[in-house]
Amino acid sequence: MHTNKTCSESGCPLKMMSRRGFMAGAGALALAATGCSQINLSNPASSLSNDRGLKTAPIRQARIRAAFVRPDVERFWMGWPGAAYDIRARQQQYTDVLKTSALKQGIDLELISEPLKDDNTVSAFLQNLSKDTPDGILIVSMCLHHPGFSAWGKINDIAGNKGAVPMIVFSPMGTSFTGEVEGKRYPELRKDGVFVGATQDVEWLGTGLKMLNTVHRMKHSRLLVLKGDTTEDRKLEVIGTTLHYIPRNRWPEQFHRTPIDSRTVALANHYARKARKIVEPRRQDILNAAKNYFVARHLMEAEGCHGISVDCLPLVRDLSIPCPPCIAWLRLNDEGSVGCCEADWNAAISLRLTALLFDRPGFMQDPAPNTVRNTLNGAHCSCPTRLDGFDKPPAPLILRSHSESNIGVSPQVLWRVGQKVTVMEFDGPDKIILGTGRVLRNIDTPPSGGCRTSVELQTDGPADTRDTKGFHQLFIYGDLEHQFRAYCQLSGIKVEHI
Question: What are phi and psi of 325, to 5 degrees?
Answer without folding.
Answer: -85, 30
